[in-house]
Design brief:
This protein is α+β, with helices and mostly antiparallel strands. It has two helices and six strands; from the N terminus they run βαβββββα. The protein is globular and about 40 Å long.
């Protein structure tokens, strides 16, 4: 699903995934990224595309005391909701 981002937002995102411990490039132009600075945190797989990103998968994450860590929870499938959540992320706001 297409998530529209400005050129500056795309560049900020690309710069961030290159240095973040919470991101990984899995193919040319394709990344995974965990975003802990939104509530609840998100985990995304996306590709860069003209005018934004193509979000291949997006999940909310929840913390588990039993697992002592974060895990994937609810899948997000509404592009407008994902766009709002990304707009709340300080990196892109």
């Amino acid at each position: 699903m297409k998530i529209e981002l400005s050129g500056a937002q795309c560049q900020a995102l690309l710069d961030y995934v290159k240095i973040s411990e919470d991101a990984e490039q899995i193919a040319e132009g394709e990344f995974t990224l965990d975003i802990y600075d939104v509530e609840p945190p998100l985990s995304m797989q996306f590709e860069l595309c003209a005018g934004g990103i193509d979000c291949l998968a997006c999940y909310e994450m929840r913390y588990s005391d039993a697992l002592d860590g974060w895990h994937l929870a609810d899948r997000l499938e509404d592009p407008a909701q994902i766009q709002r959540r990304l707009a709340a992320w300080p990196l892109l706001s």
